[in-house]
Amino acid sequence: MSVKDKVIGIIAEQAVLEPSDVTMDSTLEDLGIDSLGLVESIFAIEEAFDIQVPFNANEPSDSDFDISSVATIVAGIEKLVAEQHA
Amino acid sequence: MKRVVITGAGTINALGHSVAETCEAMREGRCGIEQLEFRDVERLMIQIGGQVKGFEAEGQFNRQQMALYDRFTQFTLFAAQQAISQSGLEFIGELASKSGVVLGTAGGGVSTWDDNYRAVYEEGKNRVHPFVVPKLMNNAAASHVSMEYNLKGPSFTVSTACSSSNHAMAQAFQMVRTGMAPAMVTGGSESMLCFGGVKAWEGLRVMSKDACRPFSMNRNGMVQGEGAGIFVFEEMEHAKKRGAEILAEVIGFAMTSDASDIVMPSKQGAARAITGAMQDARINPEEVGYINAHGTGTAANDKTECAAVADAFGQHADNLMISSTKSMHGHLIGGTGAVELLACIMALRDGVIAPTIGYEEPDPECALDVVPNTAREAKVNVVLSNAFAFGGLNAVLALRKV
């Protein structure tokens, strides 16, 4: 399974949606994921890929990790996974 | 001063998953203490407890709730649903903004601490679930009850070891009595039956390996239990106006501190709490027909408690009944006073006195009528419920038949 499919699967589970309902341009807000849901999703992603996501819930916009849409989250995770294997 | 009545009760404990099941077990003198079942139990010296069996949280709560609710919160919400539904109260408008929830627990989310310490220490994991803190905090259960039922008034959690529930209910009582709140949800819960929870208690060397036998000469210690007891305390006129069924009246309480030792109980501290509760309730000692004892089954508690009762009641100590239902459901620590209040309500409403089971040999230092082994029919109008905690913090409640 690709990184993208795995991340979408995790986000879909959190949003209680089918993966097909999670599009790349959706925001977490669109999907009904609140701040607690967000940290839970990040935890699930960290567990799934065995990576450390640099995200601070106090300053989401200042974090090195862009959560503005599903696409930016997937891109961020792909980069972290690539760095981990490098 | 307003009068305060109980209009709802709910529970889950080793004797049953409802008030009716629990009272039936108490009437039959059934023991809910069994072999414990959880991970690593074989490494414990103490392997018995009043464990809640057959409770499937999966069917009760959704996935998101499951991630947030420690077992002590699950028990609380399960019992609160019964109590609030029985009361018939719907918390909206003024009633919602003034009513709150005060609960007791000694340990809070003990199994959440246990599971996550295990993950980081034993399994070497470096990451824990983001809900660990909101799940384990001692006020989690009270907060979830407030959210579930729209209780927007004073809400908090009291943690005074084995007196937690009695202290919590005393607070709720006081809030309704003074007119601060028209109704309060109160009681307590505990869930320490996991490896770390029982291991910690083992260290004190006060636990029995085979049974809880309060007041019996051959008693050899306490046995832990788990569960919750939740009640709705309501201002009497408020309850009468809406035609609510009234289970009992709460008429007084007292709290005292031994100010002497962190674990050894004091006769004076206990006796002052008993006498204080009777004074607060404006009753004569002769009116008290039954006491639900703290009765832990330890050498120290039971003889101290009997001596305190003898001091507080004088001659009348020989005429009243005193029993410890911990012999059946175990010691629920911070939730114990709440589950034991059910025995008090049963005594007042049904005229059935729950027995002290496991009683085998009289102890001259506990020479009171402890209702040994078999429940008894008796008419009582006033009852007391004792709780004497580690740390010397005592809380006694007084109830009257309605």
Report on this model:
The complex is a heterodimer of chains A (86) and B (402). Chain A has a single domain (3-85), classed as Non-ribosomal Peptide Synthetase Peptidyl Carrier Protein, Chain A (Orthogonal Bundle), CATH 1.10.1200. Helix content of chain A is 51%, strand content 0%. Chain A has 3 helices and no strands. Chain A has helices at 3-15, 35-49, 70-85. In chain A, helix 1 (3-15) runs antiparallel to helix 2 (35-49) and helix 1 crosses helix 3. Chain A is globular and about 35 Å long. The model of chain A has no long low-confidence stretch (mean pLDDT 92). Chain B is α/β, with parallel strands linked by helices and 402 residues long. Helices cover 37% and strands 19% of the residues of chain B. Chain B has 15 helices and 14 strands. Chain B has helices at 19-28, 57-60, 63-68, 71-87, 93-98, 110-122, 132-136, 140-149, 164-177, 195-202, 236-241, 267-280, 299-313, 326-329, 336-350; strands at 4-13, 34-35, 48-49, 100-104, 156-158, 183-190, 227-235, 248-257, 288-292, 321-323, 352-353, 376-377, 382-389, 393-400. Chain B has a 10-stranded mixed β-sheet with strand order 5-4-6-7-1-8-14-13-9-10, with helices on both faces. A two-stranded antiparallel sheet of chain B has the order 2-3. In chain B, strands 11-12 form a two-stranded antiparallel ribbon. The mean pLDDT of chain B is 97. At the A-B interface, helix 2 of A face loops of B. Chain A: InterPro entries: ACP, ACP-like_sf, PP-bd_ACP, Ppantetheine_attach_site.
Keywords:
heterodimer, A: 86 residues, mainly alpha, Non-ribosomal Peptide Synthetase Peptidyl Carrier Protein, Chain A, 0% strand, B: 402 residues, alpha/beta, Peroxisomal Thiolase, Chain A, domain 1, ten-stranded mixed sheet, two-stranded antiparallel sheet, 37% helix
